[in-house]
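[job 4471] stage=fold_predict status=RUNNING
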Amino acid sequence: YAFRALVAHLQERPQVQNMDLMTLGGFCRNCLAKWYLRGASELGLELPGGYDAACERVYGEPYKDWKSKHQAKASDEQMARYEASKGLHAKHGDDARPAPPPLSDVCCAVADPHE
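[job 4471] inference complete, writing structure tokens
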């Protein structure tokens, strides 16, 4: 649910630039697409269309279309923040952190909404 909600949240806010997501959160929509693809792979599923299909799932349309409609050219200030924050950026491929376990020891417990 969390992944779908985050994707929907970002699809409703195309004005939020990937560059700003990277400098503030260390990830962007492309990272989400890579994690989506990796998750499918770890479950033994093949995503037809591969990374492009994963991007379309995250962006809600082909990436090149989203980019031409919504992505602004990064300013010098944004580029400086991006470079300064590189140590916080998500890792992919061989440098990626191991995936978290699918379930925690508390995930199936009934949550008390009053806590």
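[job 4471] summary: The radius of gyration is 16 Å.
[job 4471] exit 0
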